[in-house]
Amino acid sequence: LLIGVSGAPLEKNISLASPTKVELTCKLDENSKLKNPQVTWKRGSETISHTSKTPNSWTIQLTISESSQLGSYSCILKGEKEVSATFHLQVPKIEGREKPIVTYNGDAAVMVCETEYNPKAWTWYMTNGTELVPINKVLHTDKFQIKRQSASVNHLKILKLTKEDRGVYWCEAIFELGSSKGRFELKVLSITAPLKPFLAVVAEVAILTTIIILHELYSKRKEK
């Protein structure tokens, strides 16, 4: 990471799916007014030493072999002021769907999970209260269909939807260094649900019409 003239804190996410060697470098912009800074590398709050340095850059070399070595690594430069840059080493993320999936009774719903790296395995879960129940282990081909479209893309298809199928579903991608989950919310509506606003308006019009007719009948009787 290049620490610029502004000195604003920098952050970078680095995705790691399997054990590997990583080299992290902080480089000070040549136009920076921060001269001959005191440099400290930290993993979380733990101070670690840099592997190599030049007049304007400092490097650490890491061998990431297990999930406990993931996390945040920061270089902190102190002089007349303090500036920093942070590298976040993490398992590849799965982006969940922000908006609920809305469908109707009897229809089917498809959920798609995708990662930038190829996981070793996939697992789909449905939520039962606070517990996650693996769909893979209770798989019913007439209800759930799981398909690995490619090495990095996995689909869950739910057939013959009922109101009991609504809720939160999760997909989990399993890597050598850990796993990531993506969240999906499913809403199942009755076929008449879209008609409810229309029916409500019709009911209001019918009530209003009835009141007008009764008022006219009452007025005519009063006149007689």
From TrEMBL:
By its UniProt entry, which CDD domains does this protein fall under?
Ig
Q: Which Pfam families match?
A: Ig_3 (PF13927)
Extract the SUPFAM superfamilies matched here: Immunoglobulin
Residue stretches spanning the membrane: 198-218
Q: Where is the signal peptide?
A: none
Source domain of life:
Eukaryota
- Where do the Ig-like domain residues begin and end? 9-86, 92-190
InterPro entries, A to Z: Ig-like_dom, Ig-like_dom_sf, Ig-like_fold, Ig_sub
Q: Which UniProt keywords apply?
A: Membrane, Transmembrane, Transmembrane helix
- Write the protein's name: EMB protein
Give the species.
Callaeas wilsoni
This chain is encoded by the gene named Emb
